[in-house]
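Re: Re: token formats

Sure, here are both.
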Amino acid sequence: MRHLVIDTASEALSIALFSDGTLVGHVHEIAGRGHAEKLIPAVATLPDGGLADEIWVDSGPGSFTGIRVGLAAARALAFAWGSALNSYSSLTLLAAMARADGADGKTLSIALTGGHGELFWQEFDRAALTPLAPAASLPIGQLAEHAMSPVLYGTGAEALVCARGSGEARLLYPDARMALLIPHDQMQPGADARYGRGADATLPPAKAAAAVPTPSESD
């Protein structure tokens, strides 16, 4: 069984290919911008052009553009290859990464850079990796008044620590290589976006379909 993981919901462009649970190829770079131009070529560099039985994609929250790019590519690849398609939350992946990083305590506090001066925020039970409350998008100043965890994880952790004047920030970008750490019950069938707040634009058609490498093209 092969799994292709696509994660473009943050500044990172991260993809990974697993074969029976073993990592066989990956690309992980802090791209910032340009995910739309880089994603499909990156997939093509993986063994067999990334061909997989199942595709996992980060459906957000995070960058609206990055989420749309990842979902469009995942849908197009799943259609072209006849692959199963599932999605996960960027915040859940970061929580799994934080736990693997040796996070202490009963609660994992995740802050991810959002738009318009806001952060996406969610806390998880460390043992079960289940969310303690729905994800929220809040202004940094407002969140600083309520987020009291001594250690924060994610791309927005440093900004939040600076805003409240205390605590420890541990920078983590969503990394596709760590996706197997996500509990199975946290996966969702299909690929519906989790923007975390009202989207500025609607999801465009999967124009990437024409650029998707078929198995014969990737040989």
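Second one below.
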Amino acid sequence: MLIPYDQLEADTLTRLIEDFVTRDGTDNGDDTPLETRVLRVRQALAKGQAVILFDLDSQQCQLLARHEVPRELLDDQ
């Protein structure tokens, strides 16, 4: 299920994004400050380039590039 980013509380969204950008394997040696990485993800969400996907089975959220989301989930919007 896709979750509209603007329906999350600001603090919840920030924590979700911070978790994503600090996860193992996401920095690739990048020294970009955390605030900048968070801002980039926020901008991608605002532009529709990224989405928040909630998995009902695992009860967890994922941030994905829009092109990585199965088409049937995008069609349900």
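The mean pLDDT is 89. Helices lie at 10-22, 34-46, 71-75.
- S.
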